[in-house]
Write a structure and sequence with these properties.
about 240 residues; alpha+beta; five-stranded antiparallel β-sheet; four-stranded antiparallel β-sheet
Amino acid sequence: MICQSDFYTGKMDYSKMLSDVAVKLHGIVMSEISTELAEIMHKKEYHPFSVFAVPHSDKLIIRVSILSEDANEVLGVFENKKKFKIYGMDTPLVITGMNKKEPLNTADTSIFGKSGRCRIGFVTPAMYKSKGKMVCKPDLEKYFYSVVLKYNAFEDDAIDFSLFSDALSECEYQSYSFQSNTYHVSGLKIRGMTGYCDLKMPGDFQKRELLLRVFQYASYSGVGGKTGMGMGGFTVSPL
């Protein structure tokens, strides 16, 4: 079961923080979850949840997604705790509201209609690893390799990344804008890509369905690395 909730904070000042907010929230989550879940997560190659935070006026929207039922209690931390004391903030981070979405059916791409066009957004800095180094080049297919690995690990299904790569190469890039930004993780500065791209997908139905399935899953799993710490926040919407 794949679930997602948006949590809304009250006014806050995080200007003194050395790390981005989601990094601190990841640490809090790991300290609050059960020993059993922590052990499962340490054994698994991929984290079964993602979290990222984006500013909204002088507040934050925190998006938490879980990729398997094992991680249900991660959502519970945000739903039940309501108030988080974070180093670098003079006052606690307070959850003032939430929006719980319907569980995702990865096979259902009907929300995109038949237009064959969509916008993909990299809303928090995203990076991937190449030859042991963190990279943020605008080479889109590289960001989705980790998405397909997570899909294959947590879903009762399997996607051939080469088929996804072929389908993506047939897309027409109608409009796009990408930037390089800095993301702070415990004093470490990591360069990541943000921006958007409007895609016209292939006319072939199966290729279009495969692309949309991966894009939808990526909006829950995040793209690239460190998605549990707020990097690689991703969105997709029909055009």
